[in-house]
Known about the structure:
By secondary structure, the chain is α+β, with helices and mostly antiparallel strands. It is 43% helix and 22% strand. Strands 1-2-5-3-4 form a five-stranded antiparallel beta sheet. The two termini are 24 Å apart.
Amino acid sequence: xxxxxxxxxxxxxxxxxxxxxxxxxxxxxxxxxxxxxxxxxxxxxxxxxxxxxxxxxxxxxxxxxxxxxxxxxxxxxxxxxxxxxxxxxxxxxxxxxxxxxxxxxxxxxxxxxxxxxxxxxxxxxxxxxxxxxxxxxxxxxxxxxxxxxxxxxxxxxxxxxxxxxxxxxxxxxxxxxxxxxxxxxxxxxxxxxxxxxxxxxxxxxxxxxxxxxxxxxxxxxxxxxxxxxxxxxxxxxxxxxxxxxxxxxxx
Length: 251
C-alpha cells in the first residue's frame, strides 16, 4: 500500500528508481566506451626504452541518449528534495504553495531567500534543513552541484560533454606508473584528438586496458565522473531524507 501524503514512502520509491536508472546508465556508458575510444602504448623516447606513453582518442561522440539519461536522473533526484519539503509542510498543517527545498550559493542567500522557501515547515524541520547546510561550501557541496547541474540542463544545455580515462589495468608483464596517479585525467572533448593519458615503466610484453567513462566538461563540476556524481547525489539525498523518516517529526 502506498504511503499517505504525510510520509516519505513515494520519495523513497522515486530514489530507488533513480538507483536503478544509474545502474542502467553505467551499463550504457560501458557499451559506448567499448567502441567510443581507442588507445595505444608507444615507446618513449625511442625503442627499446622501458618508459612507455599511453595515448587515447575519442572516436565517437557521447550519445545524446546518455546525456539525456544523466540529466533526467539528476532532475529526479533534485525533485525529490522539493517533494520532501512539501511533505514536511503538509505535516505542519500547511499548504505547499511556494515551498521548495532551498539550495543556495552561500550561507547569506540561504538565510534570506532559502529560509523563505521553508517558512511553512515546523521550526524543528527548518532547523534540520539548515543543519544540512545546503549551500556551497556547506556540509554538502554535492547538493549545490546537483542543483547547478539540474538548472544548467533545463535552461542552457545538456551537460556531460567530455570523455575521460579512468583506471588502467595490465593483464600481463609488469608496469609501474610514473609521476602522480592522482593527477586529473585528460578530458576528451574533441573527436580524433589524441591525448597522453599516462607514462609507465614496463617490463616484458605488458598488455593494458583503460576503463573509459564520461565526465562533466563544464564548470563548476568540470572533470567529475558523471556516474560517481549521480551516485554521490543519490546517497546524499537519501541521507537528508532519512533525517525526517519518523512520521510527523525530525529524527
